[in-house]
Amino acid sequence: MRRISAVIIAALLFGVLILTNPKAYEYASMLGFSDEKLPDYKAEQSKADSLLAKDVLEDLAVKEKDTEHKYYRKQFYDSWAITDSGCNTREAILARDLTDISYKDETCKVATGTLIDPYTGKTIKFERGDSTSAAVQIDHVVALSNAWSTGAYLLTPEERLAVSQDPLNLLAVDGPANQEKSDQAADTWLPSNTDFQCQYVARQISVKYKYHLWVTPPEKLAMQKVLATCPEEPTRGLQN
After folding, report:
1. Pairing, β 110-116 against β 99-103
2. CA angle 215-218-219, nearest 5°?
3. Where are the alpha helices (DSSP H) in the chain?
């Protein structure tokens, strides 16, 4: 499995920021990545669309959770990855997923924005502040404890860092919904917004496939049930 360096991770994160939020392009030089260095995400997405989630699910190993290796969050990361500019992964995902964004003090820190929450369907007005920032949280679509117990304990530290910082595995979502989900897998928790359940499951499958993780029997059954309602649902971020 390919080892992913911190530099490549940062390039991926801020490539997404720039491509999904044109205003953020002005920060490219500050972040240390020129447009020539950024990956072609549009090309990658067009390839990913040819892979169906239901088919990729069948390629995943099916096992029970590992209970012998104890999980600690620090086995993945201590805090969000930070570039030399001081911008971190959280800011990149906020910039990708929110609209009507304003920035704090001409930096890449998102000050305000609007989120159409994928988990609940609610419209949330985000405002940075000690008592307001938590209204929008960054969720690991495949919870890190779930990733750990389904194979991530076998990954290298660099690969586990990649799981925790990969934009494929991150979504800006409603804070209370994120807390409700906690570390649950698809067999015990799905977004209340039923219109997003297919995309949610497809993204989980994509993450598990990318990092060679497995699914438990109940988890696979729950995913199959969701995908039966949308058999043409593509994976996300995978290539042929």
Report:
1. antiparallel
2. 40
3. 6-20, 28-31, 41-48, 53-59, 89-97, 144-149, 157-165, 175-181, 197-210, 217-227
CA atoms of 27 and 4, how far apart (whole Å): 24
Can you state the angle between helices 41-48 and 6-20, rounded to 10 degrees? 90
Name the residue among 173, 192, 195 with its Cα closest to residue 124.
Answer: 173
Q: CA-CA-CA-CA torsion for 211, 208, 150, 224, nearest 10 degrees?
A: -160
Q: Residue 187: enclosing H or E segment and its boundaries?
A: none
pTM, full prediction: 0.80
Quote the CA–CA distance of 32 and 7 in Å, as a whole number: 10
The residue behind tokens 């000050």 is 111
| More confident call, 40 vs 80 | 80
8-39 burial: b if 16+ Cβ within 10 Å, else e = ebbbbbbbbbbbbbeebeebbeebebeeeebe
pLDDT in tens, 44-87: 333 444 599 999 999 999 999 999 999 999 999 998 997 555 67
Predicted confidence at residue 105, as pLDDT, reads 82
CA torsion 236-10-135-168 (nearest 10°) is 10
Spell out the long-range contacts of 58-65 with Cβ–Cβ below 8 A and sequence spacing 24 or more: 59/209, 60/205, 60/208, 60/209, 60/213, 60/214, 60/215, 60/220, 61/151, 61/214, 61/215, 62/214, 62/215, 62/216, 62/217, 62/220, 63/150, 63/214, 63/216, 64/216, 64/217, 65/149, 65/150, 65/216
